[in-house]
Amino acid sequence: MTAAPAGPAFCVHDIPFSTYGSWFDISPVIAEKTYAEDLHLVSHQNGMHAVLRLAPLHTTSAARAETRVEATPGLLSWTAQSGRVDLAYETPDTVRLRGSGLDLGVFAAAHVLTPFSGTYFFHDPAANAHVFTSYETGRRYRVTVLSGTIARTAGTQALGGAERGVVMTAQADGVWEIAIEELDTARPPYDSSASFDEVVAAARSVFAAFVDAVAPWRSAATPAAELAAYVVWSATVAAKGLVTRPGVLMSKHWMDKVWSWDHCFNALALASGCPELARDQFHLPFDHQDESGALPDSVTHSEVLYNFVKPPIHGWAFGHLRRMLPTPLDRAELTAAYERLERWTGFWLTARRAPGADLPHYQHGNDSGWDNATTFDPARVVVTADLAAFLTLQMHELAAVATELNRPDEASRWHAAAEKMQTALLDQLWTEDRFVARSAGSAETWSSASLLDLMPIALGEHLPADIASTLADRIKAHLTPYGLATEQPTSPHYLADGYWRGPIWAPATVLVEDGLRRAGHDRLADDISARFRALCETHGFAENFDALTGTGLRDRAYTWTASSYLLLAQAYARRDGS
User: Fold this and answer.
1) Which SS3 state, helix, strand or coil, does residue 362 take?
2) Whole-structure pTM over 0.90, yes or no?
């Protein structure tokens, strides 16, 4: 048997070490923009919580050892001149650790235990293991010694403030090994016949199979494909709690949710190679669709938020998804998706249109996904051109699906509604050379230097050619050497790390690139794709990027960025014939 390749190396300060299906990772990132000195086991059940601190120690002095941390998809290692510690996932809820020449302290991250918070630590005689039980995650973390010995324990059954944990050591010139499990309440004592090396080999093999499925087209021309696949693979969690299906979190850093437009890009990146997982990504937020037809703002293990929504790009995404899946959806799946999209569209046409209005409105920038874009500076309850464009595309998709389901009357109704929406968009929001936004409560209109105002390019082939050309020219003004700035760099409101007021974002890039291509502006679309791919290949898969330097900003392991790279790289590889 040929050994699976180790896979791409990465920095755990940027990308957490985890595995497909796991609800925890190993990382120094323990809270938003908070980096610890040691790596921690960080759980994402009931929120993001650092549970265990993993500290390499000198065997002679028990002092903290300075080590170099190296990571590939199947193996995480701490190395020093005197020895090393290795960690690998055996299953999504169990990691194995092995060390020689270094000891390892496994300590509770929380120093203080109260009746409502912190971590309790004790020896469980039934399993002959040490157990940390965490108030924050509501889970237990069991440490079982497989070889070597415990040099010392601290804080067993302690209350209040105390260090709690165990220190592993080996006999002279030997090796120690432990297993750490995340469990709910109880399970049989840990038992495994697999050696540590077999655990590593299996982990590498599983990831290699995933890469081969989602990026079989990869080559030297798409050098970040494997790392992008790892970001998506490692951020995928098993169905648990309110996450009703296997779900790709936006990150296993602090952005550990599924937002109701981010998921579309992950679904598309997975469509051709992992079709079932792709369908799960598309439907996950729809599993929480409310009575009005609205999707939640976000979903995570223990929380579903409805205080905002996200833009209706789902018709656009579903159309692409259907074309990318290796086999067509059966009638039952198509019907279920149609009914969900129909209710989502109905929400915008009823709850988000003022009496007598033709066009719907956002109630806040958060609803658009572009939270603080300058389009929303004059007002927040706003009729915008991007919203009408997305709904137009969604109704075109509903018409196409209705036709496939042999519902001609519904298809005609949706086609007419799409035409009516686009007519109103052009009549009411298009001026001589730009789209404007309008207050939902008055006739006041305005324009901005935000790329959001140009997002109707997503209509692609549906736009009149002259309007598409004008939008393409305006889009060029947002291009920097690294891609599309969300606010024109010459704008007085431009901010290098201004969230949607300057930085480059993956979803805007994909939507603009796709719309330009469908509108016949292939050369500009090619340029935008090339710049974004080069950006990711140089600066990784951050939540967003400084438009003038390319530096990654905010959360550095964001799945919709990785998925957008995979989408653009796959399309490039096919155009290039490689």
Assistant:
1) strand
2) yes
